[in-house]
Specification:
Structural class: alpha+beta
CATH architecture of the largest domain: Up-down Bundle
Distance between the termini: 46 Å
Number of domains: 2
CATH topology of the largest domain: Glutathione S-transferase Yfyf (Class Pi), Chain A, domain 2
Number of strands: 4
Radius of gyration: 18 Å
Shape: globular
Number of helices: 10
Helix content: 40-55%
Strand order of the largest sheet: 2-1-3-4
Order of helices and strands: EHEHHEEHHHHHHH
Strand content: 5-15%
């Protein structure tokens, strides 16, 4: 199977959660926006209805033969078993998918620290509200999410290394990406929480050391975080830590 990933060019964004799974598994895929001359237009065309389509609402979406899947958690629920990045039992898969949905909620809250009013407005047009939103996020929501996933690791009956069972899944890869993004966006806040999340840090190190993923992280295919994506570093939003 050769997969096609559709996401906006120039930003890691939500597409990166899917890329990490594909790269870790060594799957054959094409990143449409990055690799095709009309990549941006191709992504846009994928969002347009025609007589026979079921157009997704927004990127990312993935095409696998005749199958098209949208939304990060949905895409990873589809890919996980196919890429050997999912638990084996039904109970564990439901738990795993629930964790992936919680990570999606976490990602949305991180995004809303710099765009609390509307995605269509520039950051500069909502900076006072962003300062308030980021302060509340750092004080309450950031520790709640971090503490939750630290506890998930601590209570994994198979050991503290991975979120579900005794093997890496897409949820671990996604958590790694969120931690990396938070280190970029909120370095002061993350340093303040460092002693409270030793298991999360060990998980992130274990993910980064996986052979294929380590090669990907060093390659030009791995896009750097920037202030056009979900994880943005505005010093004025990180002062309250």
């Amino acid at each position: 199977m050769r997969y096609a990933l559709y996401y906006w060019p120039g930003i890691p964004g939500r597409g990166e959660f899917v890329r990490l799974a594909l790269e870790d598994a060594g799957a054959a895929y094409v990143d449409i926006a990055a690799e095709q001359a009309d990549g941006l237009a191709a992504v846009g065309r994928g969002l347009d209805f025609d007589a026979s389509s079921r157009a997704p609402f927004a990127p990312p979406f993935l095409r696998a033969g005749d199958i098209e899947v949208s939304h990060v958690a949905n895409i990873l629920a589809f890919l996980g078993p196919r890429l050997n990045l999912a638990p084996e039992t039904e109970a564990d898969r439901l738990w795993w998918h629930g964790l992936q949905l919680t990570l999606a909620d976490f990602t949305a809250e991180i995004h809303d620290t710099h765009h609390p009013i509307a995605s269509g407005l520039h950051y500069e047009d909502q900076k006072p509200e962003a300062v308030r939103r980021a302060g509340a996020f750092i004080d309450t929501r950031l520790p709640r999410f971090l503490d939750y996933f630290e506890a998930v690791l601590a209570h994994n009956p198979a050991g503290e290394h991975w979120l579900v069972g005794n093997a890496c899944t897409t949820a671990d890869l996604s958590l790694f990406q969120i931690l990396a993004g938070l280190d970029y966006a909120f370095p002061n806040a993350m340093r303040a929480h460092a002693e409270a999340i030793p298991r999360l840090r060990r998980l992130a190190a274990a993910v980064a050391a996986r052979e294929r993923l380590a090669a990907y992280l060093k390659s030009p295919r791995r896009m750097a975080f920037n202030n056009d994506g979900i994880f943005r570093h505005y010093p004025e939003l990180d002062l309250k830590a």
